Amino acid sequence: MEIRQTACPLDCPDACSLDVTVDNGQVVKIDGNSINSYTDGYICAKVRKYPEHVYGKERILKPAIRQGKKGEGEFREASWEEALGLITDRMQEAARTFSGESILPLFYGGSNGYLTQDSADTRLFQRIGASQLLRTVCAAPSGAAAKGLYGKMSGVAFEDYPEAKTIILWGVNPGVSGIHLLPYLNEAQENGAKLVVVDPRAHRLARKADYHLQVRPGTDLALALCMIRWLWTNEMVDHEFLSRHATGADQLFEKCEPWSVGRTADVTGVPEETIETVARLYGESSPALIRCGWGLERNRNGGSAVAAVLALPAVAGKFGVRGGGYTMSNSGAWALDPEKAAGVTGYDPTLGPAPRSINMNKVGQALAFEDSPPIKVVFVYNCNPLAILPRQELVYKGLAREDLFTVVYDQVLTDTARFADVILPATTFLEHREIRRGYGAVPLQEGLPVIEPVGESRPNFQVFNELCHRLGVNREGDAETEEEFVDRLLEQTGRKEDYRQALAKDKIVYPECGVRPVLFQDSYPMTEDRKVHLFPEDLDQEAPRGLYVYQEDPGTTEYPLALISPATGRTISSSLGQLYRDQVGVAMSPKDAGDRGLSNGDTIRLFNDLGEVVTHVEVSDEMPEGVVFLPKGIWCQNTANGRTSNAVSPDTLTDLGAGACYNDARVEVERKAHGLDSGDLGTASSSGTHGSTGPSS
């Protein structure tokens, strides 16, 4: 038995360093260490359970080929040679008959590092002329807003939160995602800081806050503009900072003008007194900072909402002191381009016209309906589209097409894998090498494999590189090995040898801006003029009604309830969802439940014109009136009819970044009077995903 060290690449801001206890080649325990001091020796419960993911009955051990009807989960084992040969043949046939655009890579990759995402995979799909996937289900609106206003500027380090006098957590819940921020928040409160939480739910951290602004979903833009207007009218704007370091302040203030405290209270549901108190507290505090999350982006106003929130510290002059400013993603601390390291720098015009782009939120439509050319091959990896994409019924319909050749390359048998023609076993991060930057904590870490690949699983870089060779798109000079790829990645820093030595010695390196930058002293906007652009013209042109223009709530009398689907402490997006087979209920306020004659535990249907979810109701004081909650990341096994919140989620797009509008789902809830309809997919019908017919048996 020995302890081996690696780093966690999973989709979380914390970038934990890990101690993995290995006994006779098998992982028996995972814990945190202090190689990354931010980890501080402890980790989340999700990663502690990771050995169950590695060795569970759902783990894919060998390649497999479908037998029987799609969706029934019946497969026969195959060799890698047979599986890759079949994939190569079908991709070549599709490209020859319909063009490369008939091939769609379907992936996301938040839980992956540079070797596993945007490296050899991008090389393969760009060079065969496949349709380009716009990965917009998460962070696209906030990314567009942050880039438009600040370029990609690093934010306040989490370690500096105890310096702040006021901290606003806006659309983020570190209690379930990013737990290592909690001790710093506790320390800040012990030092006398005021904690403000902006969130529709009264979750545990919101109840601990000094002020909880329980906004209606989709109204964060109104609240942020109102706070800017209040600072302006109450002479708490830092005009000197704006004149030196910002542009577009006048246009921003013009957009704020309609948002009086009274109107904002009516729209958001936050009392006037609370809005004024928090605006004054923020204006008068120094240092003051905002931790802006991604929850506020998932609606029709999402991009403008994030932009308005990020504008607040510039308007109020909160930069220039330790613990002052904002934190969103700190990935901008590293200017690394894995596609460049892989030999891909955008689409190669020598291959012909650029292929079409398909928005990830519209994949259901792209798969379910004929297009020109039709999608004939879909290659799913680093992703479980049936669990994460909106318009779930269309995704089901598309994947069920018998004329669609579907490859699923994954670690476990997901809901999506039931519809595969070929399944390939992927390694977990404990079984392959990885290079990963943090996006909350800022280090770059190298994770080395701590065990041999389980079964016949193989790492992404190896498989996609082999497919490049089989399809004849490899070129002289390509980075053919992981070592060559890492070299080219680190060359981009200008300090390759220094970082090589540091990673070899310490397994961790830090960016040149430092671990704890003071914004506008050590870290500046990455815009061309190094200024904050409070009203970027390109964003104003992109937004359908203009930047900072509020779009009204999509609710109707028929569907009056807003459905939200935040993360929980059980899954990382949908990863690890196979470990939980219990039914997950819909949380609802006592008033809304009472109005519908519902009691805790009643079987209900949550529905709109797009679909329905059958499960039970959980009456909860956490929920405000008019809002219901069904967690993201659940699988079909977690509801009675095999559907999740995405069955009722629209595929409409955000104002910026063409992102997902999950929180614009408007629904009704009623008692389910009878048994399941004949068309429902309960857990029994999905058992083929996890039962004896699967290749992992």
Written overview of the protein:
With 697 residues, the chain is α/β, with parallel strands linked by helices. The chain has 3 domains: 64-126 and 341-428 and 454-493, Rossmann fold; 141-331 and 517-542, Dimethylsulfoxide Reductase, domain 2; 566-648 and 665-689, Beta Barrel (Barwin-like endoglucanases), CATH 2.40.40. It is 28% helix and 17% strand. The protein is built from 22 helices and 27 strands. Helix 4 runs parallel beside helix 18 (460-470) and helix 8 (220-233) runs parallel beside helix 13. The radius of gyration is 25 Å and the shape is globular. 57% of the residues are buried.
List keywords for this structure.
697 residues, alpha/beta, Rossmann fold, Dimethylsulfoxide Reductase, domain 2, Barwin-like endoglucanases, 3 domains, six-stranded mixed beta sheet, six-stranded mixed β-barrel, disordered C terminus
Describe the secondary structure blueprint for this structure.
Elements: E1 2-7, E2 17-23, E3 26-32, H1 45-48, H2 50-55, E4 64-66, E5 75-77, H3 80-98, E6 103-106, H4 120-127, E7 132-134, H5 140-150, E8 166-170, H6 182-190, E9 194-198, H7 204-208, E10 211-213, H8 220-233, H9 239-245, E11 246-247, H10 249-256, H11 261-268, H12 272-284, E12 288-292, H13 302-315, E13 325-327, H14 338-341, E14 357-359, H15 363-368, E15 377-381, H16 385-388, H17 392-399, E16 405-410, E17 422-425, E18 434-437, E19 444-447, H18 460-470, H19 482-491, H20 496-506, E20 508-509, E21 532-533, H21 537-542, E22 561-564, E23 586-588, H22 590-595, E24 603-608, E25 611-619, E26 627-629, E27 666-671
Parallel strand pairs: 6-15, 7-14, 8-9, 8-12, 9-10, 11-21, 12-13, 15-16, 16-17, 22-26, 23-25
Antiparallel strand pairs: 1-2, 2-3, 4-5, 4-17, 18-19, 19-20, 22-27, 23-26, 24-25, 24-27
Helix pairs in contact: 4-18, 5-13, 8-11, 8-12, 8-13, 19-20
